[in-house]
Amino acid sequence: MDMQRIPAREGNYNLRNYDETRATFKWEDAHKYFSWDKTGKVNIAYEAIDRHAENPSTKDKVALLYSAPGREESLTFGEISAESNKFANVLRKYGVHKGDRIFLFMPRSPEFYISLFGILKTGAIAGPLFEAFMEQAVRDRLEDSEAKMLITTPDLLERVPQEELPTLEKIILVGNQEIESSKYIDFYNEMEAASSSFEIEWMDLEDGMLIHYTSGSTGKPKGVYHVHYAMIQHYVTGEWVLDLKEDDVYWCTADPGWVTGTSYGVFAPWLHGVTNVIRGGRFTPEDWYDTLEKHSVSVWYTAPTALRMLVSAGEDLVKTYDFSSLRHLLSVGEPLNPEVITWGLKAFDLRIHDTWWMTETGAQLIVNLPSEEVRPGSMGKPIPGIEATIVDNEGNEIPPNQMGNLAIRAGWPSMMRGVWNNPSKFESYFINGWYVSGDSAYRDEDGYFWFQGRLDDVINTSGERVGPFEVESKLIEHPAVAEAGVIGKPDPQRGEIIKAFITLNPGFVESSELLEDIRQFVKTELAAHAAPREIEVKDSIPKTRSGKIMRRLLKSWELGLPTGDMSTLEV
Ligand code: PRX
C-alpha cells in the first residue's frame, strides 16, 4: 500500500500547510479578495472580468484563447468586458431583468462566454445547456425554468420546440440567417448597435446566478440553483487546488453545459485573472495534445474517460509533443483509476490530482492537493472550510474504513441554494445538518476518502450524468417498445455505458435494424450521450408489486451477480 503513495515534489504551491490552514481557515477570511467586502454588493461578472478590465496592468491580458476547427481567436479582459456590456444592453433593451432565466444553447465559442457574462451583468440567472441536447431535453429544461429568452444558433434552433414554450419571449440567434419572426433577434446586428458601457446590476450575495440541470434516478432533470456567493469557493479552490498563478495558461476540457465547464471552465480561472484556453470541437488525442503544446498549457483539468482514451492512444504519441510547460494536472467526474495515475507519471512526469464534487456542490470539496501525498484510487481530503464524513441511512456518522454515504456539513458557500420549482427535492438531500451525496465511499484513518459507487441508479457515462428514468421514458415513446429498464453497465473506457432492457409491443419482431432504430430514436430526441449503447429484448421487465422497475435486479443479471432478496418482485 505504502509503495503506491506518491509524495509531493518540492514546489512553490499556493497551499503548502494543509493541516494548519484547515485548523484556522474561515470562509470570511476570503472575503477580502473581493470588492464586496467593502460594498456588500456583488456580481460575479465584475469580479471575474470587469475588475481585470479596469486594471491597466491586466486590461490587455489575454483572457480567452479560443481554438476550434476553422476558428482561432483571442480576447482580452478589456474586450470581454466591453462585449459583455454590449450584450447586457441588448438584453435590457428586450426587457431582461434581475431574476429572469436566460438560457444558452450553443457550442463553445467566444459568443457563448460574452453572452454568459452579459446575462450575469443584468442580474438574470444563466442556464447553460449542453449543445448535444435534443428536443425533449431542451423542452424539459426551458419549461421547468420558465425561461424568458434563449441564445442559440440557427443550426440548433430546430431542437427548440418554440410553440410549446409559452414563457419564451425571444430567441437571440448567433449566426448569419434571414430573420423571419418577430421572436428572433440577430446577435451580431444588435451587438453592432449596442453601447459598450453598462451599469452592472449589483446583487446580494445570496441572489441567483446560475441553474444547471442535472439528472437523478427518478423524474425529470432538476434545476440546481446557485448564487453569486459561490464565487468565493471558485476563487479559493482555484488558488489551492488548481494552484493558479498569474502567468498560468489554464485549460479545462469540460463543456460549459455541465457544472465543471462553468465553475472551473469560466469562473475559477477568470476570478484569478488567468489566461483560459477554450477548445471547441470533438475529442481526438492528437487535437488535445496539439492544444496543450500549442498554447503552452501549464494547468490542465480534465476527466478520467479522456485520460483513458489518451492511455489507449499509446505512449509513443505522447513522445512526439513538447509538454514542458505543463506543471499541474487534475481530474474530475468519475473514479480515476490508479493505472491512469501511473501512466500520467510516465507520460507527463506529473501526478494526476483527482477531485470530487457534484453539480449540487457547485465547487470542489474533496481533493488531492499538490502539496499533499497522493494515494492512487483516493479522491483525497476535504478542502479547508469543508467538513466531510461518512453517514449511515439515518445520517449518523460511522467510523473510518466502513462504507456508507458520503456527506458534507451543509452550508458551504457554493452549495446549491435550491432545486428550481422543487423544494421537497431540495430538502430531501439533507439529514441531521448533513448534505448527503448519494455516493458511497469510506474514509481511511488519515482522512482520505475512497469512492465506491453510486447508491442510487444514476448512470455516469464518460463523466456525464444520465438519469435512467429519462431514458426509459423516451424508450417507451417508441412505437415498438412496451416497457424499458435502463442501467449503467461497467465499461473499461467510459466508466459505464447505458444498457436498456426492453419488451416489445405485439406485432414487433426483434431485429438489429429495429434495435438501431430505437437507439437512434433516443439519440435524436434526448441526446447522443443518453442513447443506450446496448439494447436487450426481454419477455418481461422485473418490477416491484407497486410497479417500480427493478434496475438493481437487471444489473445483477447483467453482471452475473447473485440476485439477493426478490420478495418484492411482481409475479
Ligand atoms: O458519483 C460522483 C461522480 O459524479 C457525480 C456528480 O456528477 P455531476 O453532478 O455531473 O458532477 C460532475 C463533476 C463535478 C458524483 O456524485 N464523481 C464526481 N467526481 C468524482 C466522481 N466519482 C468518483 N471520483 C470523482 N473524483
From TrEMBL:
Keywords: Acetylation, ATP-binding, Ligase, Nucleotide-binding. GO terms for biological process: acetyl-CoA biosynthetic process. Residues 470-548 form the AMP-binding enzyme C-terminal domain. GO terms for cellular component: cytosol. It is an enzyme of class 6 (ligase). PROSITE patterns: AMP_BINDING. Residues 57-420 form the AMP-dependent synthetase/ligase domain. The keyword Aminoacyl-tRNA synthetase does not apply. Pfam families: AMP-binding, AMP-binding_C. Its EC number is 6.2.1.1. One of its GO terms (molecular function) is ATP binding. NCBIfam families: PRK04319.1 (NF003313). Belongs to the ATP-dependent AMP-binding enzyme family. This is acetate--CoA ligase.
